[in-house]
């Protein structure tokens, strides 16, 4: 019977670089979204159209809020990946420390 042993090989620096760049991109997009925020004055729709103007303004606000939250959640997800990467590094260091004391045949 053949026994296969596999190990997880993670390039931690590459993970940090790639996901750090993704986090920065999502944060930049959220900032850009805020700086280019569209506001509509319901009265701009003219007499007799205030209700429609209000609905358009509310829809734009909802779109902005939803888009910004999406970008924030994506950043948070990538931050969790980085935290897991830190956990892998810590577990690997601990395992190396424990195995250092094991005698080789």
TrEMBL record:
It comes from Corynebacterium coyleae. This is Uncharacterized protein.
């Amino acid at each position: 019977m053949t026994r296969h042993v596999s190990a997880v090989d993670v390039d931690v620096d590459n993970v940090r670089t790639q996901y750090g760049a993704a986090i920065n991109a999502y944060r930049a997009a959220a900032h850009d979204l805020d700086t280019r925020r569209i506001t509509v004055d319901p009265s701009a729709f003219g007499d007799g159209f205030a209700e429609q103007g209000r609905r358009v303004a509310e829809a734009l606000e909802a779109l902005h809020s939803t888009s910004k939250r999406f970008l924030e959640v994506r950043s948070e997800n990538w931050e969790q990946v980085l935290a897991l990467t830190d956990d892998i590094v810590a577990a690997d260091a601990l395992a190396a420390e424990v195995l250092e004391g094991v005698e080789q045949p």
